[in-house]
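Sequence in, structure out.
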Amino acid sequence: MKYKICYLSFITGLLALSSCSKLLEEKSQSEVIPKTTVDFRELLMGSGYMPATEPINFLYYMDDDVDFFIEYGNGNGSPVGSSTAKINFLFYTWQPRLGDRNGLGDLISEDPASTAYYRHYDWIKGCNAVLDNINNAIGSQPEKDRVRAEALAIRAFYYFRLVNLYGEPYNSNPAGLSVPLKLTSGLVAENMPRATVAQVYETIVNDLKEASRLMDPLPIVRRDFHINQPAIHILLSRVYLHMEKWAECKAEADKVFEQGGMLNDLTKAPASSWLTYANPEVEWMFGGSPQANQSTYIPSAEFRAMFDTTDVRWKYGFLIQPQSFYPLLSKMLLSTIDPVQSVRTGEAVLNRAEANVQLEKLPEAMKDLNDLRRTRIVGYRDTSIINKTDLLQAVRNERRKEFCHEGFRWFDLRRYGMPAITHRYQNELTEPVVHYTLAAKDPMYVLPFPNSLLLRNPALKQNPSGSMPDRVGQ
């Protein structure tokens, strides 16, 4: 089933500029005005749901799973010194100018519409337009509830991303500034200031809880590219994990299995089905590939060493380059039509396992860990870890392998305490290899706002990372 941009997507601007009372008035027959719940669901798909694109794939370059492809550099087809290597240099080395220029010194764009920040708010605008007007639609109450629940859930998902890009981690400073909260489609006369991290998280939780309240009584629909009940509970368990609300995290993960969620034995499944709806673990597909350019940046040696040789996630996720025997990513299908990212049951298992460790329920956590590994590692035999510290690390390692290059690792590093990271880089073949370090609790763990946004919204106060000096390699 193809994921299509629906025919009503162009009217989001009309909805945002129209009052509720005027929205459903009769217009010229040449205008398309949503009236039914079906219309609004299509509008949400076209203007609220993320298309087959990914505006935050730059996170690929910033965590500790990535390395520079120096070993391939022999003067023949080497990435060293290439424009591709340099363009993404600022992200890879955590430079304060990363939101405004690329590694060649070119201005990325003076148009805020090109930023990840703007694009998420554009989808939020689509959600808000539906939320403001769905109650007036023609249709049954269950139909309205489903559309409203979907809009609330995906709006919460976008705010979760934004707060983890531009605000401090919740477990570090919930009172710190985050991003503005725009919860209606109407225009505002004044510039919007930043809400606190806690306020944004409160909105996220409230939206997801209301979405589950509305949708849980309805039939569960799978594999139609609309978010469903299990996916909503997985997202809510993820949010509680970041908030360190362990009991709530576990409770939401439990609901996934109460609603038919399951683990799929990937050791017996074809590789092509892992991150598709052919995998029964997958509850929701969305967006484009978070993988970035692979000809210059590869999985780091430290990360590669974590995989067991019989772990099918290695076989499915990486392709060995014949010329150099170095791996390139092959995890995501590169499609401009169908979504390739997924929310799947494996996350519920790992969220619950981590929560159980923190709740001192080590046997339950160990069971979840063994259950997951048994479906990922050929011939796996259950193990037992009785030390809390060791078991927590084992769960987090499994999470790192399970969701590598899917946009999880950077957000997880933030909630783990923002550890130091070192990346190596070579600008030209004739120059030495240098190392760039992101210090522990570095300000760059909270990204700077692009200047194009600050110029258009003076109330959007810059983060400390935006005034740092250039980071120098050693």
